[in-house]
Write a structure and sequence with these properties.
alpha/beta, four-stranded parallel sheet, 4 strands, Rossmann fold, globular
């Protein structure tokens, strides 16, 4: 097994599959609870952090000073109907910035 560490931050009901795949799970239902895990996430040197979309910005901002580093990769996943498509909007904006126009149409 590799030394790469994997984490998930989110509610218990969404964490079961991640726990089953060997992720370290940090159960949080509010931004305040998620904030409490930020120092630990940073010290643990995770390679990949999955989080519920509602915590994505909070966690991404905490690692802002490491943007030039390859790790950790932070991925937000939609867990509610109204969050579906948020990730694709974010990727489209990154491609628009990199390419100078929206080539994803």
């Amino acid at each position: 097994m590799s030394d790469s560490r994997l984490a998930f931050v989110g509610g218990e009901e969404n964490s079961l599959c991640f726990r089953g795949m060997g992720f370290d799970v940090y159960v949080a239902y509010s931004a305040e609870e998620a904030k409490g895990f930020l120092p630990l996430l940073r010290r643990s040197n995770y390679a990949l952090i999955f989080t519920e979309w509602k915590f994505y910005s909070l966690i991404k901002d905490h690692f802002e000073d490491q943007r030039s580093e390859a790790l950790p990769v932070i991925l937000g996943i939609p867990t509610r109907k109204e969050e579906i498509g948020k990730g694709s909007e974010f990727i489209r904006e990154l491609v628009r910035i990199a390419a100078g126009s929206d080539i994803t149409l």
